[in-house]
Specification:
By secondary structure, this protein is mainly alpha-helical. About 70% of the residues lie in helices and about 0% in strands. The relative contact order is 0.15.
């Protein structure tokens, strides 16, 4: 383990620890009013739970992943894909609805959300699979049925998983999952003819979906349909625009330097769960726009380090995993912030490092630990110690 710790990427580690620390402080600040006034809990309720998520994530997720060689990722990711597809089926069949969605498995002290974990698992599984596919030599002008099956296999699995998530219903996670697959698909070294074919199929599917939607065919529920109407939220302050408009008020209150840590007014039940989707609005209100920009710069640094580790990786699998994880973090940031600013559908997607939540926190810790393991192996390979 000492060899592993010596070879992790120190700048990435320091910045991720800093971001998690900022997130923990802001979760306490954003949640204490809701916990005490609305849920009759201790003001420290969400702060302590998030602390438990971070500590357990380090000891039971990060450390085992750092010790696990990437050669084992292929078999492990296959097994985990099967397990979590089974859990998604279980969620749809047996779990109870929370906020009109069946996304959670209640374990008593906390609940887990399988759709969060399967994003990172899918990134690793696709990377190992596409690396194997790229090494198979297809004879020219000959049909290779085995190759065709391998090319279509991930498409089928992704459609299955996306469908299970969509019918929970969880539109936001479905969008992110399909975006992740699209990035992995085009980043992977594979048959260009197949990529062109899939591009045409994808464009056709989008056009068909748009045509069906415009013609009045209802393939999304009323709650999802409401979220598509995200323009001019303050015109719908007492209805669907309440959260986004109150987010605007929080940001406006903050100005450049903020009203002071703990002094937010919008967390006083104006925003229903200010410690999750809208935590960035509370950060800007309390710490100011300058602090908000600083957090965005830290995000950029994290993405830069992950992409750099991917570029230096001595295996194609490691590189593709890093690119997928960078996309995973970036998409969450983009979808959360554009939803908060009323530029995109409000999907309930957590903001990396900042939002409260066990499943996403553990998934993010797992993703970062995988990147660090790839960096460790790259450095050991460079010195001939692997």
């Amino acid at each position: 383990m000492r060899k592993v710790l010596r070879n992790i990427d120190k700048p990435l580690l320091l910045v991720t620890v800093l971001l998690f620390a900022i997130g923990l402080i802001m979760i306490f600040s954003a949640s204490n009013v809701t916990a005490f006034m609305k849920q009759a809990e201790s003001p420290y309720y969400y702060f302590l739970k998030q602390g438990v998520f971070l500590i357990t994530g380090i000891f039971f997720i990060a450390i085992p992943i750092l010790r696990c060689p990437t050669k084992a990722y292929s078999k492990l990711s296959k097994l985990l894909m099967i397990i979590f597809i089974g859990l998604l089926v279980y969620v749809l069949a047996f779990s109870e609805s929370v906020n009109q969605a069946k996304s959670w498995i209640d374990l008593g002290f906390f609940s887990i959300q399988p759709s969060e974990f399967i994003k990172v698992i899918t990134i690793v599984w696709l990377a190992t699979l596409y690396d194997k596919i790229s090494k198979i030599k297809k004879p020219k002008n000959e049909k290779n049925n085995a190759m065709d099956i391998l090319l279509w296999l991930p498409i089928g699995i992704i459609i299955l998983v996306a469908g299970l998530i969509f019918f929970q219903p969880d539109l936001g996670t479905t969008i992110i999952y399909l975006m992740l697959f699209t990035i992995m698909f085009y980043a992977a070294p594979q048959d260009e003819t197949f990529k062109k074919k899939m591009t045409l199929i994808g464009i056709g599917a989008l056009l068909l979906g748009g045509l069906l939607f415009s013609s009045g065919v209802e393939f999304i529920n009323e709650r999802q349909l409401e979220r598509l109407d995200f323009f001019r939220p303050c015109d719908k302050l007492l209805d669907t625009g309440s959260q986004v408009c109150n987010g605007y008020i929080a940001i406006n209150n903050g100005g450049l330097t903020g009203v002071g840590l703990g002094n937010s007014t919008q967390k006083y039940l104006y925003l229903p769960e200010p410690y999750t989707d809208f935590i960035f609005a509370i950060i800007v209100e309390e710490l100011g726009l300058i602090a908000g920009i600083g957090i965005l710069l830290l995000y950029m640094f994290v993405l830069y380090r992950i992409l750099l580790i991917g570029r230096k990786s001595y295996t194609a699998t490691g590189a593709l995993i890093c690119y997928g994880i960078a996309a995973y973090i970036f998409i969450h940031i983009a979808v959360n912030l554009t939803g908060m600013f009323g530029l995109f559908i409000l999907t309930g997607v957590p903001l990396p490092f900042m939002s409260y939540g066990g499943s996403y926190t553990w998934s993010l810790i797992a993703a970062l630990a995988i990147v660090q393991r790839i960096n460790v192996e790259t450095k050991l390979e460079e010195r001939g110690e692997l």
